[in-house]
Amino acid sequence: MIPLITHTPRLTLLAGSRALLTAELHKPHYFPVLLGAAMPADWPPGEYDEEAGRYFLAQLTAGGRTAAGWYGWYAILKATEQRPATLVGAGGFWGPPDAAGTAEIGYSISADWRGQGLATELVSGLIQQAANTGMVRRLLAHIRPDNAASQQVLLRNGFQLTDPDTEGRMRFEREVEPAAPAV
């Protein structure tokens, strides 16, 4: 079974579920309660929009339990004495890896939380999650050429720039070493 929660030093990454996505899309006043986190003022962030949420919900509905963990993930900044746990971004995979073990990631951080290294940490957590599945051998990401900050996030996480894709976006790739089995 694929783990549905991953921790980094400052973040808890929680896999999107049908219940969370349904609340986010249709009952937003319940969403922070189910998530257990305060909401940023500008939710949803950047490229994580309603269309992405609907896509993730449709994929989880169609794929059942085997789809869990292969779509959207919520990035929750852990609580401190000064503030409650707070939703700061979203990321995840665009689906399970293909037959060669290749999966694609995407991510976005709310504007109020940018510039603090949280996107770098979110991508690091997604790489960790991919390794933990034992199924992913290579990760891809596509970035607009004008998004220098996101390009730096990928480079800091060991991605390398490859050829641009057919839509003019920049394509980044990195190998993933499967995590050692737990003893």
List keywords for this structure.
5 helices, Aminopeptidase, about 180 residues, transferase, Acyl_CoA_acyltransferase, single chain, acyltransferase activity, transferring groups other than amino-acyl groups, 8-stranded mixed sheet, alpha+beta, Protein N-acetyltransferase, RimJ/RimL family
Describe the 3D structure:
The protein is of the alpha+beta class. The protein contains five helices and eight strands. It has helices at 18-26, 31-35, 50-63, 118-133, 148-156, and strands at residues 5-7, 11-15, 72-77, 86-93, 102-109, 138-143, 160-161, 170-175. Strand 4 (86-93) and strand 5 form a beta hairpin. The longest helix has 16 residues, at 118-133. The mean pLDDT is 92. InterPro entries: Acyl_CoA_acyltransferase, GNAT_dom, N-acetyltransferase. It comes from Hymenobacter psychrotolerans DSM 18569.
